[in-house]
Amino acid sequence: MNLPKHTAFQAALRPALAVALAAGLCACVAFERAPVAGLRCDPDLAGAWTVKAGGNAHKTVHVDDRCRSEDWPGMGDKPVALELTGFVVGEDRYLVLTPEQAQRAIGADTGSLTATAPKDSVFLVLYRINARGGLDAWLPDSQRALAAIARGELAGRKLDERFALVQGTPEQLRDTLAQRLNLLYDTDRKAMVFERAKAARQDSR
User: Which residue of 21, 122, 187, 203 has the lowest C-beta tally within 10 Å?
Assistant: First the structure.
């Protein structure tokens, strides 16, 4: 896949997940279908968030009470609109993105995901609310998923050199997330960190 090198969001993702390719981010794991019939808005997402990684603050994004962001940093740091809805499995929460939404979310070139991912497939972002009230998020690890598929531990197939497709019914996919999360996500690695943005302080006169 041909992903751009210099968007603010990817600058936060690369050190946080340590899964960069020379040409950009490698987190190319698609799921054959959404694991749930209906997506919901997580009320905990509402508000202003600052994307942080490696101790450096990056972009602030705003999510309204309908889980919609109008200022997500996309291609060339140009703001894009995203619907940030998803589902819950146990204590873990997930955002569900279509290939087109995922392209915009990571600032990928047009067609880089939609041309490869099958129709109706989705991308899942795992996130957890931490003890500080912030949000830690992980993208699935494509090499981890492909290795599990090759061992027969995960149902799926390779779509291209570095792209994994996880297959199954919605129930099977939910069971995988609930019982075998480690086949897809490396939560021991540093996460993407979203902190609640502090309100700007006005100087007293």
Answer: 203
Q: What is the pTM of this model?
A: 0.81
Per-residue pLDDT of 109-123, as tens digits, reads: 666 677 888 889 999
- Average pLDDT over all residues of the chain: 81
CA dihedral for 66, 62, 78, 14, sign (positive or negative): negative
**Contacting residues for 49 by C-beta, under 8 A, at least 6 apart:** 60, 61, 62, 63, 135, 194, 195, 196, 197
Maximum alpha-carbon separation in the chain: 67
**What was the pLDDT predicted at 26?**
44
CA dihedral 115, 120, 123, 129 (to 10 degrees): 160
Cβ proximity of 146 and 204 under 8 Å? no
Q: How many CA atoms lie within 13 A of 91 on its CB side?
A: 3
d(CA 192, CA 103): 18
Task: Look at residue 45 and give its three-state secondary structure.
Answer: helix
Cα–Cα distance, 101 to 113 (Å, whole number) = 10
Low-confidence residues in the chain, pLDDT < 50 = 1-26, 56, 200-205
- The backbone region for 187, taken as left when phi is positive above 0, alpha when psi lies in -120 to 50, beta otherwise, is alpha
Residue 179 in tokens:
């019982």
Strand, helix or coil for residue 202: coil
Amino acid (1-letter code) at residue 1: M
Q: What letter does residue 107 receive in the DSSP assignment?
A: T
